[in-house]
Specification:
The protein is mainly α. It has 14 helices and no strands.
Length: 338
């Protein structure tokens, strides 16, 4: 199957996964904070007793419009971190009211709404990671991304860390002499003056620090057994919730089967990883752990959300932390293999 970005002649961004992650984290946080605020304030209506009700899907749409306006109005990568943040908040406000759009009585409290939101966000993140891993960036795309960053440098808005990051990316070109403009872009990047990071770039700096934190954790000698223990604890938590559900005799037969299948598969992948740690090495073990985390994200937590939003939210936080740790460890090992 051909890559659609090649068919459409699109150049992929080296920061795509980072910006998409910002978007998702902002969206999920907005949903949780919105629901908490509404619960604490007794679900007030904007508009009072005037007969009007300004649903929060409207400010959500406005924020998404602002995010698109930033992208349309400015050149270079500068506005992207802020656009990802504002767009994520706007999308969170929008999809939080999905229950009103899929029910005939506009039911905001429609029970499956949480599962719908969960599937959208997790599919977004996991799809982005698989998309990037399936087709790595070409040398030409890396040079094009460096030229894009150069726009900020020529305008006097490039931070020293970002320049160093881009130059390191150019160092990894397989055949730099064969890529048109590679030497010229490098020369200009080395010549431009750097500045302290601007407000939009501080969002990007935050994710850089988060990535460094996970990388440090993954390099610890205890990282592998801790991953295994956390994965097993995660499945045990899901089973505890499941037992409580069965004892309550609530009518959630499909959800029970889904959680059972998901936790069973996660246990198999985790046990396989622990076994492979001695037989085939760390990389094989971590790859198996990654399958366990993704199974929990895409299967177990989806069905858990349908019956216990609190339990699934706790599981989601743990799964995202584990996914960050596992991906950081795999990325570290790939860099070591180069």
């Amino acid at each position: 199957m051909s890559d659609p970005t090649r068919v459409l002649r699109l150049v992929r961004s080296t920061k795509a996964v980072q910006h998409l992650t910002t978007f998702v984290v902002a969206g999920v946080s907005t949903i949780l904070l919105t629901r908490l605020y509404l619960a604490l304030t007794g679900y007030p209506q904007i508009g009072g007793d005037t007969g009007l009700h300004v649903a929060h899907v409207l400010p959500g749409g406005l924020l998404m419009l602002v995010a698109m306006g930033l992208q349309f109005s400015y050149v270079g990568p500068g506005p992207r971190p802020l656009a990802a943040l504002l767009g994520g908040v706007g999308f969170g406000l929008f999809i939080d009211e999905v229950g009103k759009f899929v029910t005939s009585d506009n039911d905001y409290f429609f029970a499956p709404s949480a599962a719908i939101m969960y599937v959208v966000f997790t599919g977004f993140v996991v799809g982005a990671h698989f998309w990037r891993r399936r087709v790595p960036l070409s040398d030409a795309e890396r040079v094009a991304n460096a030229a894009h960053v150069l726009v900020d440098g020529l305008a006097g808005r490039l931070s020293a860390r970002r320049r160093a990051e881009v130059l390191h990316s150019l160092d990894g070109l397989a055949r730099p002499g064969d890529v048109q403009g590679a030497a010229q872009v490098r020369g200009l990047l080395e010549d431009v003056q750097t500045r302290p990071p601007s407000l939009p770039h501080r969002v990007e700096e935050l994710w850089h620090r988060v990535g460094e934190f996970f990388t440090r954790l993954s390099s610890s000698r205890y990282a592998l057994p801790v991953m295994g223990v956390l994965l097993l604890a995660q499945t045990a938590w899901a089973l505890v919730v499941l037992v409580g559900l069965v004892l309550s005799r609530a009518p959630h037969g499909v959800a029970v089967v889904g959680v059972l299948v998901g936790t069973g598969a996660s246990v198999v992948f985790t046990a396989t990883g622990l076994w492979q740690a001695r037989r085939r090495g760390r990389r094989a073990a971590v790859e198996s752990f990654q399958r366990s985390v993704l199974t929990s994200l895409l299967l177990t937590q989806v069905f858990l959300f349908a019956v216990s939003q609190f339990a699934a939210t706790a599981g989601l936080v743990v799964d995202l932390a584990l996914l960050g740790l596992v991906n950081a460890d795999l990325a570290r090992m790939r860099r070591a293999d180069r």
